[in-house]
Amino acid sequence: MRVPRRIVAILEGESLVNDATALVALHFAVAAVVTGTFSWATAAGEFLLVGLGGVVAGIAIGWFTAALQKRIDDPPIEITVSLLTPFAAYLTAEQLGLSGVLAVVTTGLIHGWRIPEIMTSRSRLQAGPVWQMIEFLLNGFIFLSIGLELPEVLKNLHGHTRGDLLVYAAFISGAVILIRIAWVFPATWLPRWLFKSIRERDPAPNWRNVAIVAWTGMRGVVSLAAALALPISARNGAPFPGRDLILFLTFVVILVTLVLQGLTLPAIIRWLQIEPDDSAAIEEREARLKANHAALARLDELAESENIAPDILHRLRVEYEDRIRQLEACEPGGDGKAHLFSSDYERFAHDTLRVERKIIIQLRNEGTINDEVLRRIQRDIDLAETRLQRPG
Question: Given this model, what pLDDT does residue 90 score?
Fold first, then answer.
């Protein structure tokens, strides 16, 4: 769904921070249930200490691991370091009595900012698919776990009637949805009303955009993970109170928000007449143009200072000039994204690459080339085809 980029940025950013702070708050709530004691003053002070300490720990670990990765030039090792970094941040912070979750979030933000500088191109190309697969498997594992546990949870709810469970589910789901709506509007407008500096620097957004943010409060894998992480028993050995009911209600809230809010979101966007913006595509096009013009200027410098063969210089210049012509001719498409090549160019290029792939496979089958040669050539064809694919 095409919506203004600012809405997407807000939803992604608040999801990251809200999940982290919510898990810290959950930690204190669980501790209160397990120990049987709770103090608002103590909890508030510890919350600030644990939260801020986790952020500081994340900054330290993020900069250290980023500096370490910068000195490595081996994709498997770089990817391994990137996989171990979140565990290093979490475990270190937890050992210090700080928030491991906020440490991981902070470390991730630092790495996300510095990865374009510290990781080699080979490592980035290989790390992307690795992380996508891990994310897919972890999400699938969490939902699979709750699916396997749900029958046992339902069996343990024998003390509650179906009517009671339906009332609880409706009440909690409604509270989750309505409290978010009641919070987002004043949280958007109140700071701008109270502080002139905020109002001048960042004027209040259109109420329609705020409504979309308020309605987009779907729950998912983090809620499941938090519910599954509840302890089985308290410190005195008694079962953790209401654990099965909490798991059931968590599952229902996720189902209700995904189905109700998720499926109605397209209709609400159309009803509110939310207009998308092409700012990201425009920025991408301008950035590509500036980068290619800078590369052409560098070629001119090299032609004057280095002994470059004319055919090499001509080939590089033609390639960059062709890219610039394509970028200047192409406007953002219907998907709101900048396209490096025209649709005709993409279509014909895909067709020729399919022929190349068919021929090398045929040569391998005939015994003219071996598997190793096939894989090397196929990798070049795959990279060329990936370059043609429209960004998603």
Answer: 92
Summarised one tens digit per residue, pLDDT across range 362-383 is 999 998 888 899 988 998 888 8
Report the alpha-carbon distance of residue 347 to residue 350 in Å, rounded.
5
Residue 154: what residue type? L
Integer angstrom CA distances of residue 126 from 46, 77, 107, 177: 41, 11, 21, 40
- Measuring CA to CA, which residue among 312, 313, 345, 315 is closest to residue 327? 345
Domain that holds residue 362: 341-392
Are 346 and 238 contained in the same domain?
A: no
Q: Name the residue type at position 124.
A: R
Residue 195 placed within a domain: yes
Q: Structurally, how many domains does the chain consist of?
A: 3
Q: How far apart are CA 201 and CA 7, in angstroms?
A: 18
The share of the chain scoring above pLDDT 70, in percent, equals 95
Task: Identify the domain boundary among 235, 252, 277.
Answer: 277
- Considering the domain architecture, whether residues 190 and 268 belong to the same structural domain is answered as yes
Cα gap 44→52, rounded to integer Å: 12
